[in-house]
Amino acid sequence: MHYQSHCGGNERRPFTLIAAADYAEEKIANMPPLLELALNCENYRALPYSGGVMEQPAGLLHKMRQVRNIYEAVALYKREGNKPGKSAKWKREHEDTWEIVEQVEKLREKYA
């Protein structure tokens, strides 16, 4: 699969990020291709293309890291932070994670 088919180009980027969050929340059944690539590379401890880091397509590793971070942040919030009566405390204790979740919500509002 070619790099563009994983990322969909920059015009598709917000939708890829939202899809990673949707997948973490189990709103969609199919894992976004870029998230799948990121998780597979992490699991196999391998780069997506042959060669070293500098031989990877420009921006690919950054985009993979973004979708993985969003997926992990939203999944953590769903699992631990989205509980009645405990949400405010969780948000204070996990400010970095909550900031990611908030940014996803802003993307959802903008691109709804």
What does this structure look like?
It contains 6 helices and no strands. The chain is mostly helical and 112 residues long. It is globular.
The amount of beta strand, in percent, is: under 5%
Helix content: 55-70%
Note the run of SSEs as H and E: HHHHHH
Structural class category: mainly alpha
How many domains? The number is: 1
**Could you report the average pLDDT, rounded to the nearest whole number?**
90
What gap, in angstroms, lies between the N and C termini?
28 Å
Q: What spatial form do the alpha-carbon principal axes imply?
A: globular
Q: Describe the sheet with the most strands.
A: none
Quaternary state of the chains: single chain
Weakly predicted, low-confidence segments: 1-5
Determine the number of helices (DSSP H or I, runs of at least 4 residues).
6
Q: What are the key terms here?
A:
112 residues; mainly alpha; 6 helices; disordered N terminus
Task: Describe the structure concisely for a colleague.
The chain has 112 residues and is mostly helical. It has helices at residues 3-7, 13-24, 33-44, 60-81, 87-93, 95-110.
